[in-house]
TrEMBL record:
Transmembrane segments: none
Organism, as annotated: Cinnamomum micranthum f. kanehirae
GO CC list: chloroplast thylakoid
Domain of life: Eukaryota
Identification of the protein by name: Thylakoid lumenal protein 1, chloroplastic
InterPro entries (alphabetical): 5peptide_repeat, At2g44920-like
Gene3D superfamilies for the chain: E3 ubiquitin-protein ligase SopA
Length: 210
């Protein structure tokens, strides 16, 4: 049987040259477009708007530090946990405003709309709350001693815990549906008199005095 001879010859693979990329020296020039200039009239308008915001917040509080502390005139950070002794909030609309744990001694809330506001654990000693709308306010743990509540409407307010009204003027105040400790109720009944001009309810009747 004839032997088959296989002559296998191997050749080295050819080296394939890779393309060489060279940086082109003649790049197209980069064109820098200048930013459009802001008209002076527009810059002036923006500046005036900023001044108006500053003036508005300062007028509301009468204190630039207060105006910016909470980021806005009605921000919670402006009125919550703050020392607002003697501040004038008379006639203001402060619906659901947060005054939790704030010091509000001798503060003026005369005629203010405080519907649903929170005075939780706040110090309202000597504050003027006369003629104020205090419906649904939270006075839990609040110190309301020596305050003026004449003709205020406290219908549905919360006064739980150690809330104290000792020494307060309550002529014409409406305490309808206000949960009071029995000792506070007895004390208030001794000094209660007058009729609330808004609701027409006698103060003694709203306190459920005997």
């Amino acid at each position: 049987m004839a032997a088959l001879a296989f002559n296998l010859s191997f050749t080295s693979p050819r080296t394939i040259p890779l393309p060489c990329y060279r940086a082109h020296r003649n790049h197209p020039p980069v064109i820098h477009h200048p930013l459009p200039s802001i008209p002076s009239s527009l810059r002036e308008s923006v500046a005036k708007a900023g001044v108006l915001v500053l003036v508005g917040t300062t007028l509301f509080f009468g204190d630039p530090a207060l105006a910016f502390k909470g980021g806005g005139p009605y921000g919670a950070g402006v009125t919550r946990g703050q020392d607002l002794t003697g501040k004038d909030f008379s006639g203001k609309s402060l619906i659901k405003q947060d005054f939790k744990t704030s010091i509000l001694r001798q503060a003026n809330f005369k005629g203010a709309n405080l519907l649903g506001a929170s005075f939780f654990d706040a110090d309202l000693t000597g504050a003027d709350l006369s003629d104020a709308d205090l419906r649904g306010v939270d006075l839990s743990l609040a110190n309301v001693t020596k305050a003026n509540l004449s003709n205020a409407n406290l219908e549905g307010a919360l006064a739980t815990g150690n809330t104290s009204f000792r020494g307060s003027i309550i002529n014409g105040a409406d305490f309808t549906d206000v949960p009071l400790r029995e000792d506070q109720r007895e004390y208030l009944c001794k000094v209660a008199e007058g009729v609330n001009p808004t609701t027409g309810n006698a103060t003694k009747d709203t306190l459920l005095c005997n």
